[in-house]
Amino acid sequence: MGRTLVELFYDVISPYSWLAFEALCRYRHIWNIELRFRPAFLGGIMQQTGNKPPAMLPKRGEYMLKDMKRMAKYYQVPLRMTPDALQHIMGTSSLTAMRFITAIDMTNPQYLEPLSRQFWMRFWSQHEDISQPENILAIARQAGLSAELSQKALEMASSPPVKDRLKDTTTEALKHGAFGMPAVVAHYDGKPHLFFGSDRLELLGSIIGEKWLGPVPSPKL
């Protein structure tokens, strides 16, 4: 039996996407899956579906701050929540960052995983800017990209092919039924199955016939 294609639609401004990203990276060597990263734009999904950020509802925002601390510890991801974290999200656009990540996906996909991780580290662990060009280039260097590759990708980020690719990926997530991120789509038994959130991976495993071993499974020997 072939491997099950599992697509992760994500935006680096989404902290729950980071949790799903790291968990799925761990499981790709345990489950019989082909993991595909699909950088998309959360702002576009929110706009198209009429969804609202957690901070728009104060009680939900308060819960999210507590929940993320628990989830980060449970998933063993160095995500740090501060009292002003939700305001930090509301005041940041991830559009340029996601276009830059998309440009790398189109030209040097081997860097997609470490680059995405560094964006999350910078924004959610170090609480630093990810929207300005100089900061994006610094993140790229941390991910192992050369100055030449990084500059080229930054220039590409504003080009029509990159903009269209990001729009198309975001539209694809919407067609699968996404209304937020992370959106995980498993192609199994001849059809796509959408799972929303980092806390649905156990259910994902049950659908595709794989066993959930917790967020930090022991690797196969």
Short description:
With 221 residues, the chain is α+β, with helices and mostly antiparallel strands. The chain contains ten helices and four strands, in the order βαβααααααααββα.
Number of discrete helical segments = 10
Structural class: alpha+beta
How is the largest sheet built, in terms of strand order? 2-1-3-4
The rough form would be described as: globular
| Main sheet makeup | 4 strands, mixed
Task: Report the count of strand segments.
Answer: 4
End-to-end gap? 21 Å
Q: What is the helical fraction, as a range of percent?
A: 40-55%
Order of helices and strands: EHEHHHHHHHHEEH
Stretches with pLDDT under 50, minimum 5 residues:
none
The average pLDDT value, as a whole number, equals 95
- Into which percentage range does the β-strand content fall? 5-15%
Descriptive notes:
- This protein is an alpha+beta fold and 221 residues long.
- The chain contains 10 helices and 4 strands, in the order βαβααααααααββα.
- The protein has a 4-stranded mixed β-sheet, with helices on both faces.
- A hairpin with a 2-residue loop joins strand 3 and strand 4 (191-196).
- Helix 2 (42-49) packs across helix 9, helix 5 packs antiparallel against helix 6 (112-125) and helix 6 (112-125) packs across helix 7.
- The longest helix has 18 residues, at 58-75.
- The chain is globular, with a radius of gyration of 17 Å.
- The two termini are 21 Å apart.
- The model has no long low-confidence stretch (mean pLDDT 95).
